């Protein structure tokens, strides 16, 4: 299996008498990959990152970087000895230092300036080397912070909500730039974010952190296809849960009988279940007839969202199903709100045992 770039084993952290911020977190990151820790704000993501960086100590558990134990079980290696680069949420640039001096801050001695200049070239800011941070845009400041983290040639790069301070107009473009940069550099990277789109775009693997625990981890496609639990589904924005009855391979629900996606581990659920209809996995078709049959609903509204169109349809029970449809489907003439449509799933879907 080889040495992992990062391994967290049963990491726990509590502040005061409150419930644990982290409760037995296990996380593995392979060398040369980008991993995202995805979860709600205040859910412990930054605490975990600070423990990896050496800015916090775990109450229990251990952290290993490139096979070396850096925290836990009596060990603690200071941040400067961990070969970790950290990009803070607010960038933390020194206002009185030039861009080049900021980028060189973490590399002492004569090697600092040439390595910092090389890092600035890497992020496309070598021409701004003599400017001060306040003379740069938000996106440029973010790239300076990234150059400063890369200049020491870290074995592990940590990004703490790196795009949260950028306005919406900049965020998408800078995010794409960083994705290309990380692929080119090849440094093992851990990103923490509350943004599903950000995590899915940048990461090879996503770990979903809810209530202090990693509840699901895998490639973005796997999490999108099967979040693993109703709580994870709701956080990821997959809200279409219909009651059903499962025989283990398929389930009957209000839109008809649907094939079930086998779970990653364990036996498929049987009996009373909640069937998850993924937003991207439901097809909406016009239904001109007046007869009643499974899956027939009334279209409530459509909303244009750039490359997608969000549709909402109400089933006879009153349940509302949301569907994300490619905007090009609208060119073929979607039904208008108030008209009847039929819903069907495009493939196997997950189901969770009902409480």
Q: Topology of this structure?
A:
Layout: E1 6-13, E2 22-29, E3 34-38, H1 45-53, E4 60-65, E5 68-72, E6 75-76, E7 84-87, H2 99-103, H3 112-122, H4 138-150, E8 156-160, H5 168-185, E9 189-193, H6 196-202, E10 205-210, E11 213-218, H7 220-225, H8 230-235, E12 241-246, E13 250-253, E14 256-259, E15 271-276, E16 282-286, E17 296-305, E18 308-314, E19 320-326, E20 340-345, E21 351-353
Helix pairs in contact: 3-4
Please give the alpha-carbon distance between the first and last residues: 38 Å
The biggest beta sheet, please?
A: 6 strands, mixed
Inertia-based shape: globular
Mean pLDDT: 90
CATH architecture of the largest domain: 3-Layer(aba) Sandwich
**Which stretches of 5+ consecutive residues score pLDDT under 50?**
none
Gyration radius from CA atoms, angstroms: 24 Å
Class from secondary-structure proportions: alpha+beta
CATH class of the largest domain: Alpha Beta
Percent of residues in beta strands:
25-35%
- Helix and strand pattern: EEEHEEEEHHHEHEHEEHHEEEEEEEEEE
Structurally, how many domains make up the residues? 2
């Amino acid at each position: 299996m080889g040495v992992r770039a990062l391994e967290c084993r049963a990491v726990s952290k509590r502040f005061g008498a409150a419930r644990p911020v982290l409760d037995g977190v296990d996380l593995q990151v392979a060398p040369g990959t980008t991993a995202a820790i995805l979860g709600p704000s205040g859910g412990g993501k930054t605490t975990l990152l600070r423990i990896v960086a050496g800015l916090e100590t775990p109450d229990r558990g251990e952290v290993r970087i490139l096979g070396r134990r850096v925290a836990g079980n009596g060990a603690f290696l200071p941040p400067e000895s961990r070969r970790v680069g950290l990009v803070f949420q607010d960038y933390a640039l020194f206002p009185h230092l030039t861009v080049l001096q900021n980028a060189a801050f973490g590399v002492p001695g004569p090697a600092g300036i040439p390595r910092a200049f090389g890092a600035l070239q890497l992020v496309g800011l070598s021409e701004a080397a003599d400017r001060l941070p306040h003379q740069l845009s938000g996106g440029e400041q973010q790239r300076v912070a990234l150059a400063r983290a890369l200049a020491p040639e870290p074995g592990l790069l940590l990004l703490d909500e790196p795009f949260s301070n950028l306005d919406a107009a900049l965020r998408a473009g800078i995010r794409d730039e960083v994705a290309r940069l990380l692929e080119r550099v090849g440094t093992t990277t851990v990103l923490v974010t509350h943004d599903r789109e950000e995590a899915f775009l940048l990461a090879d693997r996503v770990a979903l952190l809810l209530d202090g625990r990693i509840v699901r981890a895998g490639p973005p496609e796997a999490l999108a296809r099967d979040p693993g639990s109703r709580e994870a589904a709701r956080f990821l924005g997959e809200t279409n849960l219909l009651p059903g009855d499962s025989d283990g391979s398929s389930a009957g629900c209000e839109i008809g009988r649907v094939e079930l996606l086998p779970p990653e581990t364990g036996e498929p659920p049987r009996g009373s279940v909640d069937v998850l209809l993924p937003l991207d996995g439901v097809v909406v078709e016009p239904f001109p007839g007046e007869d009643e049959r499974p899956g027939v609903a009334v279209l409530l509204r459509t909303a244009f969202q750039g490359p997608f169109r969000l549709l909402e349809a109400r089933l006879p029970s009153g349940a509302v199903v949301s569907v994300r449809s490619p905007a090009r489907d609208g060119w073929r003439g979607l039904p208008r709100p108030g008209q009847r449509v039929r819903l069907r799933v495009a493939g196997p879907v997950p189901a969770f045992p009902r409480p």
